[in-house]
């Protein structure tokens, strides 16, 4: 089990409970009336009915295009690479999508240099660009929620301190673009009970896969806001493994002459497959059943050749993000008959992501003296402001003969900052851009009429460390990313 991080998963609870707070304002009126109607009335189901109604809004005009790889995907790659580097030679499993959505809900409330740094980490030029990318990700979940053959659920929720006045525009934004609901809590006097409530909700959203996301020590009298994202996935292989073919206690070569035991599933079948001779890896894509043509989910494995170090492969992929995108893309693959061996395993991981997020550029957000989240709470309402004290992520995956089940939860803890106010001078943000051009010539010769022999099956034997991903292929979205170095368990 890897150490330190946060995350959340699946579904929506009704936001229309009695919130009785004088701290929220609606178009100039106090929101101390019961019901929190404007944020809660339509969020009373685990689906995306309300979110689906806004698909014709400007944020979705470009949904037919692929997700902007300079936003969520590059953020996810940088995040995974940094966690992986910090957890050297250990198993890693996390949800880049969960972390990105939780941090996006913080980013849209940031201002000045805090905003610039957070946008830069996402490789986004503006907050609107980031919001549009987030809305496209949300639409993947919305479309999948209608699919009876695969389960993909998401929930976003904010827990705010009672009587703490948040910006009306911010609340409207997270509700409309992130389908988030809002709950009020008293962290100061009921901290332990609030933690129990949050943990119970996260456990419910993740089908009991993510337990005890928060501990009582994670909240105190300075806690003002907790932003949570939860994701849950359950998919069935299009081509299931026969349990009778699973090799019990097979050898797994961890490296450095260390051999562990693992239950190795086996089947002979055709899969989307490619090889990269320069990187010396094999890549196989195993699809999950789906009845929705708009969303297609796959389990992708990047397997280094025998004798090739996984850490060397990861270093290359970190240095060449385009190479990673190429390997994950089906456009580089062809259907090949494989002798496919895949470990049966369960893995869970927990991370505190503060240092990781600082490493990828989000410095000011974690500094009580420098953080500027005046888009969430105004200076006039709280001179001390907010800063991020902790980002927690938990994730779990079960891979077996029938398919995969995975969940993740991310919690962003925001505390009262210092009374020393930051520099209010505007800071210009310029995203580094580069342009490239390429020309490709395809030369096609006339084929001979001779009949080619039937190709032999390719052995794809994941009996050594490998990378794995649960992805949505239509939008090239990595929902979960992992690395199996040592078999954790063989349930």
UniProtKB/TrEMBL annotation:
One of its GO terms (cellular component) is extracellular space. It holds the Pfam family Serpin. One of its GO terms (molecular function) is serine-type endopeptidase inhibitor activity. Residues 1-63 are annotated as: Disordered. Residues 77-487 form the Serpin domain. InterPro entries: Serpin_CS, Serpin_dom, Serpin_fam, Serpin_sf, Serpin_sf_1, Serpin_sf_2. PANTHER family: GH10112P-RELATED, SERINE PROTEASE INHIBITOR, SERPIN. Belongs to the serpin family. This is Serpin domain-containing protein.
């Amino acid at each position: 089990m890897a150490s330190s991080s946060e995350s959340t998963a699946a579904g929506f609870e009704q936001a229309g409970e009695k919130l009785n707070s004088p701290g929220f304002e609606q178009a100039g009126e106090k929101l101390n009336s019961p019901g929190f109607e404007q944020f809660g009335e339509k969020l009373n189901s685990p689906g995306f009915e309300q979110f689906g109604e806004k698909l014709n809004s400007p944020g979705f005009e470009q949904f037919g295009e692929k997700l902007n790889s300079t936003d969520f995907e590059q953020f996810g790659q940088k995040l995974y690479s940094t966690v992986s580097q910090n957890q050297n030679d250990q198993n890693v499993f996390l949800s880049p999508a969960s972390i990105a959505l939780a941090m996006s809900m913080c980013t849209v409330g940031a201002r000045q240099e805090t905003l610039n740094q957070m946008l830069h980490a996402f490789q986004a030029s503006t907050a609107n660009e980031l919001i549009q990318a987030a809305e496209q990700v949300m639409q993947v979940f919305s479309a999948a929620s209608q699919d009876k053959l695969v389960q993909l659920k998401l929930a976003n929720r904010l827990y705010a301190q009672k009587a703490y006045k948040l910006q009306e525009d911010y609340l409207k934004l997270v509700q409309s673009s992130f389908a988030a609901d809002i709950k009020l809590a008293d962290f100061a006097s009921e901290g332990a009970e609030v933690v129990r409530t949050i943990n119970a909700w996260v456990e419910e959203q993740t089908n009991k896969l993510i337990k005890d996301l928060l501990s009582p020590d994670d909240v105190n009298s300075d806690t003002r806001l907790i932003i949570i994202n939860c994701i849950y996935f359950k998919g069935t292989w299009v081509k299931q493994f026969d349990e009778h073919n699973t090799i019990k206690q097979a050898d797994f070569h961890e490296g450095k002459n260390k051999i562990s035991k693992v239950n190795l599933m086996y089947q002979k079948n055709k899969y989307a497959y490619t090889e990269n001779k320069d990187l010396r890896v094999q890549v196989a894509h195993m699809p999950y059943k789906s009845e929705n043509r708009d969303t297609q989910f796959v389990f992708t494995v990047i397997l280094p050749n025998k004798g090739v170090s996984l850490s060397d492969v990861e270093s290359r992929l970190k240095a060449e993000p385009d190479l990673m995108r190429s390997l994950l893309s089906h456009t580089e693959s062809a259907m090949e008959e494989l002798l496919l061996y895949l470990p049966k395993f369960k893995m869970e991981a927990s991370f505190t992501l503060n240092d990781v997020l600082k490493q990828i550029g989000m410095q000011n957000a974690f500094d009580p003296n420098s953080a500027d989240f005046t888009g969430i709470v105004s200076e006039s309402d709280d001179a001390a402001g907010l800063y991020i004290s902790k980002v927690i992520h938990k994730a779990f995956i079960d891979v077996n003969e029938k398919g995969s089940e995975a969940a993740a939860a991310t919690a962003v803890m925001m505390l009262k900052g210092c009374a020393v106010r930051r520099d209010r001078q505007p800071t210009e943000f310029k995203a580094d851009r580069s342009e490239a051009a390429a020309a490709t010539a395809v030369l096609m010769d006339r084929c001979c009429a001779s009949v080619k022999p039937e190709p032999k099956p390719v052995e794809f034997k994941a009996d050594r460390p490998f990378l794995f991903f649960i992805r949505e292929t239509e939008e090239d979205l990595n929902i979960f990313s992992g690395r199996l170095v040592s078999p954790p368990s063989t349930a």
